[in-house]
Write a structure and sequence with these properties.
The protein is of the alpha+beta class. The chain contains 8 helices and 17 strands. The relative contact order is 0.06.
Length: 492
């Protein structure tokens, strides 16, 4: 800046307006400038003893993160983004301070120019030229400050944009951390479930092995393999445990097959023993051992008394214990198997003159073909309807042979004809349902239903399949209602 002549010092300085009376400055000295060509103000380079600026550091670290994010873990990446977000916040604060400094500079230049204008009006000659030159320098300085302010606004916009980018990146990194954490927890839970299933499989294998230990010599080798699997589990070797899981399934299947084969041999042995005990063959059993047919006792020897003079009782043979299950009410020469008899051997004892003869089915009662799929189809409905004829009511023959509708629902059963309802009862412990156990040519199509105490029916269906389907369906629905639906004195 040009030097002011001594004449100015001799002026009354009280007339000059104070510049810094109402302005607070960031620094306590006036900034230094250099003059270029045509009195252009050039800002002197500042000495930077603190290294690169904060903006350069942020940009450099952001570039390094972009290059190294594939090698960093998700948690480290999130920490890096958080640090850069903090640096961006500091940079934003610095930009605000610089904006305040710029505002102070504008105020200072305005007051300085006003003071110089005031001096120019009171001076003449060379001093007036110096004042005018100083005014031009102040105006050039104001232009330079305006340019710097524009750059500051642009820099502030870029800093804000960078801060938003880093904030979004930090949130994305945190989401990735949470996602990876949830995946890890899911993997841990899956591994625990696998170990638990293996433990349950080992326990089940142990129980099956103990039950069939005395039935087959090959079980000893299987037990050794199970013990080896348990030892591997105790040694904490998950890889071998995963390999042994499939082997244990195969071993469990083999044990079940051998157990079923052993049970079949025991059944055949029991049948053979009973056949040897009854060598006289006074009576024989006619009929197919299948659900949907009926069995009839016939005389096979001239020495055998007539069935009308004998007492008859049917049983379900139990191979697991020595006691047979009595079929209550089945005391006629004819018996029609019902779904409860499937898989069981049936036997009939004929008593006469203090003696007893027995007949039995050659094997367990086989299920009816297609009955299972038919029942599954009916269960898709909320209510199944069958056409029936009432044969007996409360133990007495029913005179009318009109067709009634027998409804089997999920919560109750109903017997009606049109709008007239004979019975409608929910499933309860007093209800009974089983195949008809009396003597009749249509026994395979008939069932006994006790709706409640004091009200019972014998219903005849259109076919054997409808009768067996109705019994099976009603028992499934009753089981869902925690009710066991069977015949009188049946052990279910």
């Amino acid at each position: 800046m040009t030097k002011v002549s001594p004449e100015v010092d001799a002026m009354d300085m009280d007339a000059v307006l104070p510049v810094s009376a109402d302005v607070s400055f960031k620094s306590n000295h006036f900034p230094k400038y250099k003059l270029g060509a045509d009195n252009q103000i050039l800002e002197e380079p500042k000495e930077d003893n603190n290294g690169p600026s904060l903006k350069e550091v942020v940009e450099q670290e952001t570039t390094q993160l972009s290059e190294q994010h594939k090698r960093l873990s998700v948690r480290d990446l999130a920490c890096k983004f958080d640090k850069n977000l903090t640096a961006a916040a500091k940079l934003s604060e610095e930009a605000k301070l610089r904006e305040v400094a710029s505002l102070e500079g504008h105020v200072l230049l305005k007051k300085l120019r006003d003071a110089l204008e005031h001096l120019r009006g009171r001076m003449a000659g060379r001093n007036k030229e110096d004042v005018e030159k100083a005014i031009s320098m102040v105006e050039a300085l104001a232009v330079k400050l305006t340019q710097n302010e524009g750059e500051l606004i642009q820099e502030k916009f870029e800093v804000k944009k960078l801060a938003n980018f880093l904030k979004q990146a930090s949130e994305d990194a945190k989401k990735l951390v949470n996602q990876e954490k949830s995946f890890a927890c899911a993997e841990i839970e899956s591994a625990r479930a696998v170990v638990q299933r293996i433990g349950e499989a080992l326990d089940e294998q142990d129980r099956i092995s103990q039950a069939s230990k005395e039935q087959s010599p090959d079980v000893e080798g299987l037990l050794e393999e199970v013990q080896e699997a348990r030892r591997i589990k105790l040694l904490h070797q998950p890889s071998k445990m995963m390999e042994m899981e499939h082997e244990l399934r195969a071993l469990r299947t083999q044990i079940r097959e051998k157990f079923m084969f052993s049970v079949k041999l025991q059944k055949e042995l029991a049948i053979s023993k009973r056949a040897e005990e009854n060598k006289s063959r006074l009576y024989m059993l006619d009929g197919s051992a299948m659900l949907g047919s009926y069995l009839r006792i016939q005389v096979s020897s001239d020495e055998a008394p007539q069935l009308s003079k004998c007492s008859i009782q049917w049983y379900r043979v139990s191979l697991e214990c020595n006691r047979d299950e009595v079929i209550s009410g089945a005391n006629k020469p004819v018996y029609a198997p019902e779904p409860l008899d499937v898989g069981r051997i049936l036997q009939a004892d004929i008593c006469f003159n203090g003696q007893k003869a027995s007949v039995m089915t050659p094997g367990p009662i086989d299920p009816a073909a297609g009955l299972g799929s038919h029942v599954e189809t009916l269960m898709r409905k909320s209510n199944s309807e069958f056409n029936v004829v009432i044969s007996k009511m409360n133990g007495q023959d029913y005179s009318s042979h009109s067709v009634h509708a027998f409804h089997v629902g999920k919560m109750r059963m109903k017997l009606c004809r049109g709008w007239i309802t004979k019975a409608r009862e929910i499933y309860s412990s007093s209800m009974q349902l089983c195949g008809y156990r009396g003597e009749s040519n249509t026994a395979a199509k008939a069932l006994f239903w006790q709706a409640r105490k004091g009200l019972s029916f014998v219903l005849t269906f259109e076919s054997e399949r409808d009768r067996n389907a109705a019994i099976t369906l009603a028992r499934k629905y009753a089981h869902d209602c925690n009710v066991t639906l069977a015949g009188p004195d049946d052990q279910v």
